[in-house]
Structure formats: structure tokens, C-alpha cells
Amino acid sequence: MKRFGAVGLLVLCAVAGVTAAVILSPWWWTAAAPLAVAALVGLYDLTQRRHSVLRNYPVLGHARFLLEAIRPELQQYFVERSFDGRPYDRDTRNIVYERAKGVDAEEPFGSERDMYGHGYEFLVPSMHPVDVPKSPPRIRVGGPDCTQPYDMALLNVSAMSFGSLSANAVLALNTGAARGGFAHDTGEGGLSEYHLGPGGDIIWEIGTGYFGCRTKDGDFDPEQFREKAAHPAVKCVSLKLSQGAKPGIGGVLPGGKVNAEIARVRGVPQGQTVISPPFHRVFSTPRELVRFVARMRELADGKPVGLKLCPGSRVQFLAVCKAMLAENTTPDFIVVDGAEGGTGAAPLEFADHLGMPLTEGLITVHNSLVGAGLRDRVRIGASGKVATGSDIVKRLAMGADWTNAARAMMFAVGCIQAQRCHTNRCPTGVTTQDPRRARALVVADKSERVHRFQEATVASALQIMAAMGVTGPGGLNPHLLRRRATDADDFRSYAELYEWLTPGQLTDAPPPGRLSDAPPPGRLSDAPPPGWAADWKAADPDTFTP
């Protein structure tokens, strides 16, 4: 391997220089001493287990850490870019890295954020804070048709596939999840031994390619699904409709990454680029979607089954709600993936211009379920640039029950955002199938970082909630989150900025097929807002097209 050869050559040069200095002339020490130091550094870099960059780039990798020490200009330019090339918040990134390393994330001299511009947000502290709970709460996931409910953590690993990630990265994430007692979403790339071996709780995601449960023709294979969903590590199943990075198109795994192992896990030919279809074959209407979810839950022996999507049209989601009412069944959960989610490679036009941001998407899904009288049957997860305790609290205040993180978890396992994911040449071994590069990621070290990051971030969320005077997620509401509405001193709560429906407010009359004519529990008599009423009327459970 090149790095071993380079260090070996450096050692030989150092030995030759020292020999020449001893035998020929002391002047050789001017070359021998630096060579000896560099050789010792290279040998140390190859054997140490904490820094993936140094394991892959001995000696030269120290240049990156030198740049990190020069703040903020060079660090901002070289190492703080998001996956789509736009600046990523330095404070957030540092918080993730420091928590993953077990370092105190507190800093002197206050915040560097702009608190005076339009759109600045803050959570409302209480003049009488409460004690921080001794243990984090869990969220019971499982509706009335679920016989094996699962208790979800407040922060979990969001969907990232084996194939996109290396085997060592998957092992580190799942081992960290096992240690911390939180869930690990597989992404749509199938269920591998790296997900199942460490013992972490698994959310098995099924995408449009049905990887891991597909026929040779690419259709859904119910028997394969039944067999794999029965594994004790699989706690929930998620049917992916779309993802935030690229709503409306399928994923792409370059052929160079599709080795024999990944081909076996996914059920695809080795060495060929894998392109997921943009749509599912097994349903084409909201009603068929809801029926398929019910079928999956039956095949999974009553384990929770849910949906994942990046919302775009309120009418389309309301059509799904109408289908739930008409069929008298619901998914057990819905994961809302905001358009700002960025771990999936995507065309820039899709990443920048399609799909709702997480705030709007989350509030839309929450209100739709509330207005249809279904919110008590469906839990909601939120995913999209969730990285800190305040991110968790904000999403819970907007209607989520729990959160998922992808980008932050990649930081925790060593990602430096080199943006080489698609080339199979990831410098830290996170997003490569090259075993020589993946070797740099030491599972024992990085899994502990994942555990520490999740634990510290949830602890921060609980501390923030206590400072707000609430003892848990149930005490949060949109009144406790404020945003600057204009450049002037005009702060408004999310309760004022958005319309919030009351339980059953949309269902003036039972939709066709509903089993009961009684209004949903908690139904108030006020009419829905005109926009919601019009969208509800336009929604059709038998078509996604209004």
C-alpha cells in the first residue's frame, strides 16, 4: 500500500542519513535529524487509532490539524463546508466533534451568532427552571394494530446505507447505538451482518429498490422480507417514499462501490451502478400505500411499520390521511426528512429547490394528522441537520416525538467533509469500499465517540428543557419557540407564525368508508382555516394527483 511504502522509504532515508552522519561527516545530521523525526512520526501515525486521516495520510495529514489550529478563516475555508458546498455552522460542527471526543463543549466570551437578523430563533427560558430528569424519556412507537411496540430514544442514527458507508462505519454506528440504547436506521441499502452483529436496535428501511427483499426483477419479495424482519435486532420497519436530499428521484450507488459483499446484501449484480427507481412498484395511490403498510406490519409479525418522506404537497399528504381514515389503519410512525438533509449525494438542483424544509414539513405532517384526528395513533420523527440539544428541543416543540441525525453521526465517526464520498476515496474511511482506506476507521474508538455524542446531546436537550421549566417533551409547545419576524424588535412565537389545528378539525363529516360516525376524541367545533379546508376538500384517497 502506498502509505506503508512511503513511510518505509522515509525510514530507509532516515537510516541512511544517520549512517552517513556517523560514518562520513557530522554535516549529514542536518538532513538525518529531520528525516528521523518524520520517520518516527510516520510510524506513529500508522499505528495510532484515534485519527483516521493520519492512518491514511501519515505525516502529511498533520497539515489538516495545523489548519484547524488557525481560526477562523482557514478552518472555515478548508474544513467547514457542508456536503452541498454551502457553509456549515462552525459552532455546531465543533459541538459535535467535542462531544464525540468527550470534551467539554463550553467556550468563553459568548456566542458568535447573529442575534439581530431576520429569522433568528430562540427558546423561551423560565424564570423558575426545574430539575433535570435523572434519565432520558423514551417514546413508545406502535399504534393500535402493532403488537410489538418499540421505545424510541430522543436522538437516533438517521438513514445511511451500507455501500454508501463502509463496513467499519456501519459497525461503529451500530456498536455505538448498542452501547447507548438508541436506534440505528439502515438506510435503503439492505440489512447486512454489520447492522446485525453488534446488537444495536435496527430500523430497517425499505426503499424503492427493495434491497434485501427484492426479486430478480426488482419487485418486493414478501418471504425475504418476512424472514429478515423477524430478526430480533430489527425493532421497526420504515418504508421510504423520499428523502430530503433528493425528493422525487432514487438513490445512486456507483459501480465502483458495488463489490461482491454489497451485491449480495442488496441482491444486485456486482460492479454495476445501482439506481433506485423514483417510485414504488407495489402501490400507486394513497389507499394502496396505506394497505401496503398494513401488509408489511402483518409480515413483520406486528412490529412497528412507518413511512419516511420529504413532504412537498399538503394536498397529497392529506390524501394519505384520508386513506388512513377510509381503511381504518395507519402507519405506526412517520419520519419527516427535511430538504436541508444532506448526507445523500444528489443533483444540486434537487438539493436546493425540491421539497419542504424540515420546519415546514414537520408542521405540515403534524397538523395534518391532528386535523384528521389521527395524531394519537402515529408518532413522528424529525430528520434534517439535527446536531445539538437545542435542535432536538426545537423539533419537539414543533410537533416531533423524536429526532434522527445523519450528518452529525458521520462527524462522530470521523467524517471531515472532504466531499469525496462518490469517488470511493474517502480520506477517513467513512464512505469508501476500499479496504485499505476503510482500515483507517477504528471501530472501537469511533463507536465510543458515537455513544458519547448521542448521550451528551440528549443530556443537553434535557438540560435545556429543564431551563425552560418543563420536565420532558410533553411540556413543550410552539409558544416556547420564538423567531424574529422582521429586522425590528418583533419576536413572534411559532404558535403565532403558523396555523395549528385542533384534533379532528378537518373532519366535518366522516370520509367515505369510515367505520364510526362519531367525531374523533377531543374534537372542537371551530371550523378549519380556509386554506386547510380547501386542501382537505381537494385531497383524494385514490390518487396522489389533486
Sum up the structure in keywords.
546 residues, alpha/beta, TIM Barrel, 2 domains, eight-stranded parallel β-sheet, 20 helices, 15 strands, 38% helix, 11% strand
* Percent range of helical residues: 25-40%
Kindly state the mean pLDDT as a whole number? 84
- Figure out the total of helices: 20
Overall 3D form: globular
The CATH topology of the largest domain: TIM Barrel
Distance between the amino and carboxyl termini: 58 Å
Radius of gyration (CA) equals: 26 Å
Provide a descriptive summary of the structure in words:
The protein has 546 residues and is of the alpha/beta class. It has 2 domains: 2-79, no CATH class; 139-463, Alpha-Beta Barrel (TIM Barrel), CATH 3.20.20.70. 38% of the residues lie in helices and 11% in strands. The strands form 4 sheets. The chain has an 8-stranded parallel beta sheet with strand order 4-13-12-11-10-7-6-5. The chain has a 3-stranded antiparallel beta sheet with strand order 1-14-15. Strands 2-3 form a two-stranded antiparallel sheet. The longest helix is centred in the C-terminal third of the chain and has 25 residues, at 443-467. The radius of gyration is 26 Å and the shape is globular. The termini are far apart. The model is unreliable at 72-88 and 509-525 (pLDDT under 50).
